[in-house]
Specification:
With 275 residues, this protein is α/β, with parallel strands linked by helices. It has 7 helices and 8 strands, in the order αβββαβααβαββαβα. Strands 1-2-4-3-5-6-7-8 form an 8-stranded mixed beta sheet, with helices on both faces. 47% of the residues are buried. The N terminus is likely disordered.
């Protein structure tokens, strides 16, 4: 497919979220050699939603699609880099800006303020619908909707579990350290543990035993819910890793766990027909 027939992309901002600077020296930078990568917009619920897209520059047929769901910090440089890494593996990887109606995470310098004033105001149903529109858009621009996967990190890890119980077209999901239990609110009426019985797609969960924000007992509660529902899901816990162990731009980065998790993710997508 000729590049101009697919879409025109523009250069995306390459900064990291202010709430997590300074950036660690372990930060991984993936180049765009052989890729078509940049910012685009997706029609969703009557508005144009910004998104970052990366895919191989040259391909035949249609590409498997991976929806990449942001951390609480938005689609900053790390999430864009994850998209490029997946594109190097032959995927069309797309990360929509899922907060764009409520605000811009780049306006906040403190994590607590970012969560209270922006993240907590984003309704789950809005997010799930935006992801549906993203998948549909990708299918119209060179993607194969029959090979649809999703992965997400932290906030996006929780969304990954919810999306696997939402879209029956999904082939597989990989959730990185996403919250599993919690209070129900108007914006978040259910948690992953509440949706275990509704999982339509296989899910791989990747967690750290040293993650104080996701205690091990909540992981065990989710495992019990998965078993009770006879759902196809697996949770891997890395004994020495904490929260955000794949975030190479942060002090929490655990390279061994991150590398193992990344390979497990690729294998999981292959196993369940995304690629």
């Amino acid at each position: 497919m000729k590049e101009e027939e697919l879409l025109t992309l523009k250069q995306a901002p390459t900064s990291f979220a202010p709430a997590v600077t300074p950036v660690a020296s372990t930060t991984i930078h993936t180049d765009t050699d052989g890729l078509h990568a940049g910012q685009t917009t997706i029609p969703s619920q009557g508005e144009d939603m910004p998104a970052y897209l990366a895919r191989p520059e040259q391909f035949t047929g249609k590409l498997p699609i991976i929806l990449v769901v942001q951390e609480i910090f938005g689609v900053h440089e790390h999430i864009q880099d994850v998209c490029r890494r997946l594109a190097k593996q032959g995927y069309m990887a797309i990360a929509p800006e899922l907060y764009f109606r409520q605000g811009d995470p780049r306006d906040y310098t403190e994590i607590s303020e970012l969560f209270a004033k922006l993240v907590s105001k984003v309704p789950d149903q809005q997010v799930l619908s935006d992801l549906d529109h993203t998948a549909h858009w990708a299918a119209q621009h060179g993607g194969d909707i029959s090979k649809l996967g999703i992965t997400g990190f932290c906030w996006g890890g929780r969304i990954t579990w919810l999306y696997a119980a939402h879209n029956p077209q999904l082939k597989a999901g990989v959730a990185w350290y996403g919250k599993l239990v919690g209070d129900k609110t108007l914006t978040s009426p259910s948690q992953p543990v509440d949706r275990a019985a509704a999982l339509d797609a296989p899910v791989l969960g990747l967690y750290g035993a040293e993650d104080s924000s996701i205690p091990l007992d909540t992981i065990e509660t989710m495992r019990q819910a998965i078993r009770a529902a006879n759902a196809t899901a697996e949770i891997v816990v890395y004994p020495e890793a904490g929260h955000a162990f794949n975030a190479d731009y942060r002090p929490s980065y655990h390279p061994e766990a991150a590398a193992d998790g990344w390979q497990r993710m690729l294998d999981f997508f292959t196993q369940y027909g995304v690629k």
